């Protein structure tokens, strides 16, 4: 039985905690860390099994698997706490990984493992498979309702108004690495795509604000020596955080199930 700790009990963490509480074979939720203590205690009270509220270091000290559901700003703290103890860290923060490229070495040196769940991105297995050969190009176009982008640093720093838009406007064009810095809470999918394929610097990214959409939409074009394919996903927004799709938390749950399941589907 693997002991599991969740760090961050917001949009993603609450869903993952509920799934673990209801039962994932071979795993037991034992600890949670959260920067919002009162809200976390209220959520924990709704779980059927007792779970302790701890600090990040305390969670890492007592759990085999650490699930990162926290903001990117504390990603490094979580990674250091987990890998200094040789733990498994599950995250959807591709942007956090890009900003801390030394953590893979840290995990390797201490016998830990970094697992990037697919998050809101479909087709990651196909991109990883293509990367075993030669990928010529990867391009991603993200289109989101304005409410999902309005708090992004790039929007604020460049005084881009997303109010009362009559049509779609392009708010960013560059590499996935640049996009991860500009939209740290919005384009983890682009960071994950870069990590899976030809790298974040070579992965092209466009971000559009589209008032006609009510879902977060990602289109991906991959040209490789093994295959040429196009992928598109339209993610339903989470009620509490429109920038995060509902499928993101579900991808973490699927990732956890695959770690202990007798049969695992996909790489």
Task: Describe what you observe in this structure.
36% of the residues lie in helices and 26% in strands. It is built from twelve helices and eleven strands. The strands form two sheets. A six-stranded parallel β-sheet has the order 3-2-1-4-5-6, sandwiched between helices. Strands 8-9-7-10-11 form a five-stranded mixed β-sheet. Helix 2 links the parallel strand 2 and strand 3. The longest helix is centred in the last third of the chain and has 15 residues. The model has no long low-confidence stretch (mean pLDDT 93).
Task: Write a compact overview of the structure shown.
This protein is α/β, with parallel strands linked by helices and 267 residues long. It has helices at residues 13-22, 37-45, 56-62, 75-83, 94-99, 103-110, 124-131, 146-149, 153-157, 176-182, 188-196, 246-260; strands spanning 2-7, 27-33, 52-53, 65-68, 88-91, 113-116, 135-144, 169-175, 204-209, 215-224, 228-236.
Please give the structural blueprint:
Elements: E1 2-7, H1 13-22, E2 27-33, H2 37-45, E3 52-53, H3 56-62, E4 65-68, H4 75-83, E5 88-91, H5 94-99, H6 103-110, E6 113-116, H7 124-131, E7 135-144, H8 146-149, H9 153-157, E8 169-175, H10 176-182, H11 188-196, E9 204-209, E10 215-224, E11 228-236, H12 246-260
Parallel strand pairs: 1-2, 1-4, 2-3, 4-5, 5-6, 7-9
Antiparallel strand pairs: 7-10, 8-9, 10-11
Helix pairs in contact: 1-12, 3-4, 4-6, 10-11
Percent of residues in β-strands: 25-35%
CATH architecture grouping of the largest domain: 3-Layer(aba) Sandwich
Unreliable segments of 5+ consecutive residues: none
What shape does the CA trace take? globular
The spatial strand order of the largest sheet comes to: 3-2-1-4-5-6
The helix content, as a percent range, equals: 25-40%
Radius of gyration: 18 Å
């Amino acid at each position: 039985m693997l002991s599991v700790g969740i760090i961050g009990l917001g949009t993603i963490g609450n869903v993952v905690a509920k799934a673990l509480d209801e039962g994932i074979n071979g795993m037991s939720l034992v600890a949670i860390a959260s920067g919002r203590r009162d809200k976390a205690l209220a959520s924990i009270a709704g779980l059927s099994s007792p779970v302790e509220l701890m600090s990040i270091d305390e969670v890492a000290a007592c759990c085999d698997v650490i699930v990162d559901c926290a903001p990117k700003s504390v990603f490094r703290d979580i990674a250091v706490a987990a890998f200094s103890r040789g733990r498994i860290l599950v995250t959807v923060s591709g942007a956090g990984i890009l900003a801390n490229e030394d953590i893979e070495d840290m995990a390797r040196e201490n016998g830990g493992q970094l697992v990037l769940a697919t998050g809101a991105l479909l087709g990651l297995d196909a991109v990883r498979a293509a990367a075993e050969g030669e990928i010529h190009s990867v391009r991603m176009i993200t289109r989101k309702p304005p409410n999902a982008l309005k708090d992004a640093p790039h929007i604020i720093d460049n005084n881009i108004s997303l109010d009362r838009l009559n049509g779609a406007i392009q708010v960013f064009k560059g590499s996935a690495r640049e996009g991860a810095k500009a939209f740290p809470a919005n384009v983890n999918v682009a960071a994950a795509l870069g990590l899976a394929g030809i790298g974040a610097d070579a992965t092209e990214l466009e971000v559009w604000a589209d008032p006609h959409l009510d879902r977060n939409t990602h289109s991906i074009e991959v040209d490789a020596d093994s295959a040429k394919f196009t992928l598109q996903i339209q993610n339903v927004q989470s009620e509490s955080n429109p920038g995060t799709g509902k499928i993101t938390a579900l991808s973490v749950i699927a990732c956890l199930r695959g770690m202990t399941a007798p049969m695992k589907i996909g790489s």
